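Recap quiz, item 2
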Amino acid sequence: MQDEISAALLRVARKDRAALRQLYALCAPKLTGLLMRMLKEKTEVEDALQDVFIRVWDRAPAYDPEKGTGLNWLCAVARNHALDRLRSQRSRRQAQSVPVEDALDLAASGPGPEGQLMLRAQMESVVRCFGELPQDRAEAVKGAYLMGLSYQDLAQRHDVPLNTMRTWLRRALISLKECLDR
Amino acid sequence: MSDDSTLSPDDHDPDDLLAAEYVLGLLDGAEWRAARDRALVDAGFAARVQTWEARLAALNAEFPEMSPPDLLAKIEARLFAQPKRRRFGWGWGLATGSVLALALVAAFVVLTPQAPRVPGLQAELVDESGALVLSVSYDRSATRLSIATTGPEPGAGQDYELWVIDDSGVPRSLGLLAGAATEIITDLEPGQVLAVSLEPAGGSPEPVPTGPVLAAAALTEA
């Protein structure tokens, strides 16, 4: 089973320049949304989006379609790049908190047009498993994944001590794992 | 709101939690570097990281689609810029006629079939204290890796060993650092990660690092 994005990614792995253009057309909207969520600033997002496609060109040979969809691989590359940028921002201005404007809302944006059956089933189980968590814990895990918030950011945001946030998150992750692997 | 009192993080596999925290991006500073180093050299840990990435991937559906900036031309310019001609190549070509110039161009194309860019890679590996610095450059056409090392010498009975890790997560030894300047002939690609570990004299007795990984960095285009 291969979707259009995965197929383009496999051609990019063979250094097919036309496939890179196709991949940009297919995925730049999603990756822009991801980077905007995590990095917030437009110029930072534009720099990051370029860097992400450079990384994708270089690393595409490592994409293994057996292990997941092309879109999820691309999102992982983009998330990791955004996390790198957030970490260096944080170490530049250490104790200050990262500005957070938009509240988290699970229902805010549904699955994109790529929502195929498998993705939908996956999504349903994630929604169900997050639903089993206390709401503030679920928000904290999603805050980390979707916005790149660190333990420190999350502790400030939820107004709890850092160690409490660590314990919350770790318990939530154990619950999630047990639920998702069920 | 119910409490989650039955689940104690202390009872849970600490490596698995660390992998989850690493994937979520919760770690900073020394904790993050330690986890990254583990992911680079420990295949079991790398597999846990991949499993967590897959578990949480459905959350990607929550990222909205947004109208993207048109950066394709900039990206292509960065990726596919014409390699700069070496100066002596030009001089020779002009001086000795177009046949030799064509031959030089043909030789260049044949010798570097997959290197449309300037064939240099680089990385800088800095340990946590900032004292040990490895400035690495890689000449892709000569497949020559040059490492300039500054900082503390390894202790008596110890050596620094250099490793390369590709996306499979399996480290391969590139050899020991020989003082301030080391040259190694090897095949490397952009995106691969170099790591330096402290090993017993003569290098790790295992096919993977046994000592602490002191620093790591990815090879990028120079």
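The mean pLDDT of chain B is 79.
Strands of chain B lie at 120-126, 133-139, 144-150, 158-165, 171-176, 181-185, 193-200, 213-218, 220-221.
End of item.
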